[in-house]
Design goal:
By secondary structure, this protein is α/β, with parallel strands linked by helices. The protein folds into 2 domains: 205 residues, Spore Coat Polysaccharide Biosynthesis Protein SpsA, Chain A (Alpha-Beta Complex); 74 residues, no CATH class. The chain is built from 12 helices and 9 strands. Strands 1, 2, 3, 4, 5, 6, 7, 8 and 9 form a 9-stranded mixed β-sheet that branches. Strand 6 and strand 7 form a beta hairpin. Helix 1 runs parallel beside helix 2. The N and C termini lie far apart (52 Å).
């Protein structure tokens, strides 16, 4: 079997000094050692830069530090993915505050090496979650049985942390270029399911998600998480997210599969409220479908 290829790790940072050293150490501990690290820092004012410089000085792998656009996490990761000097080949996305298990890169690249479909492949590892002082546990099971474009219209089940794209999928996303969307990983889920990219979901954990109060999307478990999600529905935030995704996708309707293009064509003439109500039935859980329909 051919050796696994070089892969570029893309990490967005902003004031991640409290967690960054451990995450960088987990990258250095990967059993696949043929990688380089590109970091886009979005205006950190803490020790983030010092940690990156120290890691780069000691690490035998190339480390590239870029100035981020300072327009939010979505723009920061797209700045990395679409950078004109990014090497060709597969990429892996890393959050600044998670930990990678040692076999993450080798397991993902091996899974992607078995086939090369026309629209490429994306590898999604399972994740463990850990709060400070607690034992790691499986993330809540909110993943549909099968990723689909219809589901991607209304929710994101493709977590960006640890996501690995083969060279073809990377090139597909770069060809579209940066878009104005609230979440870069949700955008990739929507784009890839729309153009027919194969999404490989691994049941084995590859990432340790470190849950803390600074996580971008707020609390993930319990009553606080439910109340947070309900508020995004109530105040129209979730609807605005969906509409931004659709607005970014419409100019690229010609790149979609016939099924996805036909569905998008049916949605375009509708009002924002009717669009959201029409696609609410594609959320995975019945209670979520009802809540989204009522919120619309």
């Amino acid at each position: 079997m051919d050796p696994l290829p070089h892969i570029t790790i893309l990490m967005g940072t902003r004031n991640g000094g409290a967690y960054l050293r451990q995450q960088l150490a987990s990258l250095a501990a990967q059993d696949h050692t043929c990688w380089s690290l590109w970091i886009s820092d979005d205006g950190s004012t803490d020790a983030t830069h010092a940690h990156i410089r120290a890691f780069a000085d000691d690490c035998p792998n190339p480390v590239v530090l870029l100035r981020g656009p300072q327009a939010g996490a979505s723009a920061n990761y797209q700045h990395l993915l679409c950078h004109p000097d990014l090497p060709t080949g597969p990429v892996a996305f890393a959050d600044q505050d998670d930990l990678w298990l040692p076999t993450h890169l080798s397991r993902g690249l091996t899974a992607l090496s078995h086939d090369t479909p026309e629209a490429g492949q994306a590898y999604v590892p399972n994740r463990l979650s850990q709060r400070a002082g607690q034992v790691p546990r499986a993330m809540p099971g909110r993943t549909p049985k099968r990723p689909s474009f219809r589901n991607a219209l209304v929710e994101n089940v493709l977590a960006g942390s640890g996501l690995i794209l083969d060279a073809t999928a990377t090139a597909q996303a770069r060809a579209i270029g940066p878009v104005d969307v609230p979440f870069w990983d949700w955008w990739l889920y929507l784009l890839f399911t729309g153009i027919g990219t194969r999404i490989l979901q691994d049941p084995m954990p590859g990432i340790l998600y470190r849950a803390h109060e600074g996580n971008l999307l707020g609390p993930r478990r319990g009553l606080r998480a439910k109340l947070w999600r309900a508020e995004q529905l109530r105040n129209g935030t979730y609807r605005r997210w969906i509409m931004a995704n659709l607005a970014a996708l419409e100019p690229h309707i010609g790149a979609l599969t016939p099924e996805a293009a036909a569905l998008l064509h049916r949605l375009i003439p509708l009002s924002a409220r009717d669009r959201v109500r029409r696609i609410s039935l594609h959320r995975h859980w019945p209670q979520d479908r009802l809540a989204l329909w009522l919120a619309a």
